[in-house]
Specification:
alpha+beta, Arc Repressor Mutant, subunit A, SH3 type barrels, 3 domains, five-stranded antiparallel beta sheet, 9 helices, 12 strands, 35% helix
């Protein structure tokens, strides 16, 4: 787990150094929850990756925006390995150094990168991951539910993360069900002393490209999108990107994918009615 946390902190540090204002060593150390000497060691790693650090007269640091090269693209080999990078150490992999830099600046996943590697979100990931490894219940503090419109604590037993680390899949004690909890809707996590009590109810559950967990049913959707709709779709739901194809004949884009819930699809279509043609299914 040490190498995984190191990779997470590299992204946290890049994100901190690219945002204003400039940061002091003390501020960086406090945010990342490491000592000052470790910050300097991470600086050395960033330099090895090709980043140039700038320092002002007050000994505060940043990465200049124009220092990040534009136009990076992933090779097929890097794209395959990308899915493994966050969940494994990546130690010694030949593609590691080049991919770490490309991951942050590649336009197709920039939104996910910003979401995942904010210092606060990364801390939540680490806490939940620790609870998974030690098999302890956790309290999701002030969880903002999009379905019930409530903000309340949730007692859960965390099972695993979704591939993009946007959701924690967990067994909720009160409802006796497996649910997907969006990382960004969690205010805080408290690891409890109580060990798992319902491990026999745990199972692996995957989310679809719109972030909805398994519901016992799947739906095949086929949409035709204008350029405007395509841009909105990949920005709002970046996991749809691999399933979008350009159609030269119509000069439009098509989305064909299986989903667990039609509600987010309906909402997206309703917001862009003039730019989307629903080929299937027929919405009521």
């Amino acid at each position: 787990m040490y190498n995984q946390h190191k990779i997470l902190r590299v992204f946290q540090l890049i994100n901190l150094l690219k945002s204003k204002p400039l940061k002091s060593i003390r501020t960086l150390a406090k945010t990342l929850e490491i000592d000052s000497r470790s910050v300097y060691r991470y600086f050395d790693l960033l330099r090895e990756l090709g980043f140039q650090l700038e320092k002002d007269s007050f000994n505060r640091f940043c990465i200049l925006s124009d220092e990040i090269e534009e136009g990076f693209t992933f090779t097929a080999e890097e794209s395959i390995w990308l899915n493994e990078l966050i969940s494994t150490s990546g130690n010694g992999h030949a593609l590691k150094d080049g991919l770490l830099k490309k991951l942050y600046v590649n336009s197709e996943i920039k939104i996910q990168g910003k979401q995942l590697f904010k210092a606060h979100l990364s801390k939540l990931v680490e806490q939940a991951n620790l609870a998974i490894q030690t098999k302890h219940q956790i309290l999701l503090q002030k969880y903002h539910s999009a379905n019930s419109q409530n903000i309340e604590d949730r007692l859960v037993e965390p099972i695993h993360f979704t591939d993009n680390y946007q959701h924690i899949v967990a067994y909720e004690v009160e409802s006796n069900t497996i649910k997907h909890f969006h990382i960004e809707r969690i205010t805080g996590i408290e690891i409890l002393e109580k060990s798992f009590q319902f491990e026999s109810q745990h199972r692996i559950s995957e989310t679809d490209v719109f972030g909805f967990g398994e519901s016992g049913k799947t739906y095949e959707i086929h949409l035709s999108l204008s350029l405007r709709a395509y841009l909105f779709l990949k920005e709002e739901f970046p996991l749809t990107i691999p399933f979008i194809k350009y159609d030269k004949k119509t000069d439009n884009y098509t989305l064909k994918v299986s989903v667990n819930n039609l509600l987010p699809v309906k909402r997206f279509v309703e917001g862009l009615k003039e730019d989307i043609t629903v080929i299937s299914p027929i919405f009521n």
